[in-house]
Write a structure and sequence with these properties.
Length: about 55
């Protein structure tokens, strides 16, 4: 998911999950792991590697 597409989730996050006391207290905390995982998948694809648990 690209940054712009992730940004589209902000409204839903604010409505349903925004809780500063919760495990993911803000939108940046929610999106950081998604963006990092996206980098992992992009690099794996670039190298022609598979990722355990994913299928075509």
């Amino acid at each position: 998911m690209t940054g712009a597409r992730i940004g589209g989730l902000r409204g839903a996050f604010d409505e349903h999950a925004n809780d500063p006391r919760g495990r993911v207290g803000d939108f940046d905390g929610f999106t950081a792991p998604l963006e990092e995982w996206g980098h992992v998948l992009t690099e794996a694809a670039r190298r022609g590697w598979s990722v355990v648990g994913l299928s075509d």
